[in-house]
Specification:
By secondary structure, the chain is α+β, with helices and mostly antiparallel strands. It is built from seven helices and seven strands. The strands form two sheets. The chain has a five-stranded mixed sheet with strand order 2-4-5-7-6, covered by helices on one side. A two-stranded antiparallel sheet has the order 1-3. Strand 6 and strand 7 form a beta hairpin. It is globular. The termini are far apart.
Length: 269
C-alpha cells in the first residue's frame, strides 16, 4: 500500500509539473506576440471617413474561412501610406465618392494560410465565385498565390470606390449560391462599390486593371481609382485593379507577422 501511495504521489507530482510547464509556455507564447513598429497606424485614426470592409476577417473570401492573424476587422498601414489615403479620400469626397478598403497590412501567417489552402487541391469550396475558370493547381504558376506578399510590408492596400451616400453591403450567408466574380454587377455578390467589372479578389485576367475588355463606365471607375492614387505616390499592380502600394516603402524588404489587432499597435515592443 505504501509503495502504491508513493507511486500515485509521484504520478500526481509529475502531471502537476507538466501542467504548470505547459501553462507557462502557453502564457509566455501569448505574451511574446510581435508588436507593430511605431510608424504603423490604424487607418481609422488618420481618416475615419474611409469605409473598411475587411474581407479576411470574414469567411467570405477565396479560402472560405477567417484568415490566420486577423483578430479584428482593422486596417493597419504605415503612416505615410495611411496619410496618402487620407489625401485621396479628401479628393474623392469632393466628387461624391469614398474609398473602401478590403485589406491593408497582412501578417505573414495569413500568407502562410493562403499557401496551405492553395496546396490543398481538394478544397475548392469557393471556386465557383472566386476562381471559376482557373484550375487550382495553377494558382502559384499563374501568380495568384505567392509565399510572400507586399501587404506584409505594411504599405500595400486593396481598395475600391463607393458612391455616396453609401448603401449597406449585404453580408454573405453560408450556403447561398455562388456567382462568378466576373458576372454582371447585378448578378454577382452584392457590394456597395461602383462597378469595376469584377468583384474583389477575382482570379481572372478580367481583373487586370487595363484589360481591353473592360470599357465604358467600368473602365472609367478603374481609372478614377488608379489616377487618384497614383497622383499621391501609389503604384498599381497591373494584374489587380484593387491593389496599390505606396512608394517609397518604409520597409521594402521586411515582412512582418504581428496580428491585425489594436493590441499590436498599443502593446508595441
Amino acid at each position: 500500500m505504501t509503495r502504491l501511495s508513493t507511486a500515485v504521489r509521484a504520478l500526481v507530482t509529475a502531471l502537476t509539473t507538466l501542467l504548470v510547464a505547459t501553462t507557462a509556455a502557453g502564457t509566455a507564447h501569448a505574451g511574446t506576440e510581435p508588436g507593430a513598429p511605431e510608424d504603423f497606424v490604424a487607418l481609422r485614426d488618420v481618416d475615419r471617413t474611409i469605409i473598411e470592409d475587411m474581407r479576411y476577417f470574414t469567411p467570405h473570401n477565396f479560402v472560405g474561412e477567417r484568415i490566420d492573424g486577423y483578430q479584428q476587422p482593422l486596417c493597419i498601414l504605415t503612416r505615410p501610406a495611411a496619410e496618402a489615403l487620407h489625401e485621396a479620400q479628401t479628393a474623392l469626397l469632393r466628387q461624391g465618392y469614398s474609398l473602401k478598403v478590403y485589406d491593408c497590412y497582412r501578417p505573414q501567417r495569413a500568407v502562410d494560410h493562403f499557401v496551405r489552402w492553395a496546396k490543398d487541391l481538394d478544397d475548392q469550396a469557393m471556386k465557383a465565385e472566386f476562381y471559376p475558370d482557373v484550375d487550382k493547381s495553377r494558382l502559384f504558376a499563374d501568380g495568384y498565390i505567392a509565399e510572400k506578399s507586399g501587404h506584409s510590408r505594411g504599405s500595400t492596400v486593396d481598395l475600391t470606390i463607393v458612391r455616396l451616400p453609401a448603401k449597406p453591403t449585404r453580408p454573405h450567408h453560408p450556403g447561398q449560391p455562388f456567382v462568378p466574380c466576373y458576372a454582371p454587377q447585378d448578378q454577382r455578390f452584392p457590394d456597395n462599390s461602383v462597378d469595376m467589372g469584377t468583384g474583389y479578389d477575382c482570379f481572372d485576367t478580367l481583373s487586370h486593371t487595363l484589360d481591353p475588355r473592360i470599357q465604358g463606365e467600368q473602365r472609367a471607375n478603374r481609372l478614377l481609382l488608379k489616377g487618384t492614387l497614383e497622383s499621391l505616390g501609389f503604384v498599381n499592380l497591373a494584374e489587380e485593379w484593387w491593389h496599390f502600394t505606396f512608394k517609397p516603402e518604409p520597409y521594402p524588404g521586411t515582412f512582418f507577422d504581428f496580428p491585425v489587432s489594436a493590441k499590436s499597435l498599443t502593446g508595441r515592443h
